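Running this now, will post back.
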Amino acid sequence: EALPAAFVFGCVHRGDVDEVSPVHAPGRDGECVQRGDVLAVVRVHDRRAWPRGFFRGRSVGPVLAVIVKRDGGVTRGCRFTTTQGAVLRRRRDRPRGPRPAQLEALRSAAVIAIQHGSVGPDVEDVQRRLSAVGFSCDPDDAGRFDDGTVAAVRAFQQQRGLQADGIVGPDTWRSLVAAGYRLGNRMLYVTRPALIGDDVRDLQRRLNRLGFDAGYDDGIFGTQTFDAVREFQLNVGIEVDGIAGPGSVDLLQRLHRTHQSAPVYAVREREQLRRPARRSSIAGARIMIDAGHSPELPGLTAPDGTPEHEVTWALASMLEGRLSALGAHVVLARGPATSPTPSDRAQLANAEDVEAIVSLHANGVDSRSARGAAAYYFGTEGYVSEHGRLFAQLAVDSICAATDTPNCRTHPSTTSLLRESRAAAVLVEPGFLTHPEEGRRLLEPSYQMLIASALVDALQRFLVGEGLTAA
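Update: finished.
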């Protein structure tokens, strides 16, 4: 008898048989499908042949059932509709597994400590994924995180616009998993949590080039990408279901357009920047302040031993106080003792419908002479958030004017908070915690107040529009 699972693990085509890695396939009651388990996908015509309670609620179109077989027997299964790509409701009397957000936290927690000196199957999994996308870990042995793996991780991070620290943290792990997907390897559709991968990014880029507004090339299959797929299907005369299956992908790959200079979303953002700001003051604005890192991921260390997460929390508290005094509605992404993942923070920002996000971090390198302020905005190869880039430029210019620190400019990045949030978001590094003098100043309340005041000024200019001109 096949038992329903808690979630659909990815998307598999009809008739496919595949093997899975344990990190991707949470099963019933949080148990993970093990490596080597066989996934058999069958089309269900007669629901009466399945256990009572397996199918509940109304569904549209045929139903597929994914059966997990182990040691020759069926251990559990799950089901979803081919037209909606949604999991039907489970029987309420069955134990519930962890929610998607909890699963994401578990996945992130599993890779937090993968860094130089780590050993085991998790390291081997990272090395295998790096090799698959063209980054050799030689001469390291399989399962040992030594200098070769550190160099490969740093090269991957640089290519992906991530902090090149050589540590496989939550952002690097998600990017590494996403890099393993190619358009056509799986069906793409709207689900929770959203499907993420390079295949989604390729799909978005192709749709945008053809004039279908799929939003940013962020690699997240959300509602805007779903609408763009439906519009494309309508225009080419195939079934309109919003699912990027083999038929839609084949047509999309055969069509191309090279003369369009900018995607739809970039043109729209530039036009919005030319319009006068609708706000007369910052009062009432919804702003998220994110204190970077957390007690579980403390980040860098100041010359006196203070961890980065305490420095960013002090800065966030001061900035929150200044903005609240001006009448803004401020949302803090974390508390002093909480450790949400970057994706959790982005989801909170989207749920609170904020207008701007400021993520506070500190910079740091091996050289003790490096100093200065920098800011980051969402950007991929050739495509950037125009709002984010303007916001980042205002933030770094304001900090440098207030503190007289060198201007390290603005840079595109693909960190989860910048990529997954709908609001204009910037990641600000007001100084180098590893510099003896600047690191000490970053701990001083008076210097932190200068930085907070500078960021308030940048937010006012960005949201109210005083003194701004379109780029």
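The chain has 14 helices and eleven strands. More later if anyone needs it.
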